[in-house]
């Protein structure tokens, strides 16, 4: 099978101590650090001209750049923004490793986007919200500039600590059946009680925020999830 990558979501960490929180997760056995980049949607604004993607505002390239000075870890950046193209250059410079954008905002320009991401030395990925059909990402896996990972959202993007949506597993299963060696990531509500559903559906990259940071023994949660994927 494909290698397990356990990626704690730093959104659940103490942002005021980001470097030490990152190191703590790596010491606990994390493979990647998942970085949630959000653009602060405002409903009134959004109805008119949709300048934002999610109703939360988190971090951007300056924080990635600061963290990069403290760690060599793979920084798995998840772009919940309406204009991912604008972030390619700054995130590349900042030292991001993976750049995962949303298909909902990139239906027309994904070829250019993927090309630019690769030219900045980052690994391109595409994500989709729970309501978006899996067929929408197939062209991005098979096109001239293919993405190297698909992130299937298992909650509505925007916040940590939400409940895992089991119905999203149909998409993971379909994807795994079609692409046996693709990196398939899941994000939202993953932890000891939901990991087996995701792993048996075929996910190999596991993002987990509240379940890892909220546990008394984060290392134990990480190793339990790894075992489930590797079984
Ligand atoms: C949600 C983010 C997730 C979030 C996951 O929009 O993309 O990465 O931090 O947090 P948990 O694991 O708590 O659901
Ligand atoms: Zn995320």
TrEMBL record:
InterPro entries listed in its UniProt record: Aldolase_TIM, Ribul_P_3_epim, Ribul_P_3_epim-like, RibuloseP-bd_barrel
Pfam families from the UniProt entry: Ribul_P_3_epim
Database matches in SUPFAM superfamilies: Ribulose-phoshate binding barrel
Catalytic activity: D-ribulose 5-phosphate = D-xylulose 5-phosphate
Classification via Gene3D superfamilies: Aldolase class I (3.20.20.70)
Positions contributing to substrate binding: 9, 78, 158-161, 189, 209-210
GO biological process terms held by the UniProt record: carbohydrate metabolic process; pentose-phosphate shunt
Molecular function terms from GO: D-ribulose-phosphate 3-epimerase activity; metal ion binding
Origin superkingdom: Eukaryota
Record-linked HAMAP family: RPE
Similarity remark: Belongs to the ribulose-phosphate 3-epimerase family.
PANTHER family given in the database record: RIBULOSE-5-PHOSPHATE-3-EPIMERASE
Protein name stated in the entry: Ribulose-phosphate 3-epimerase
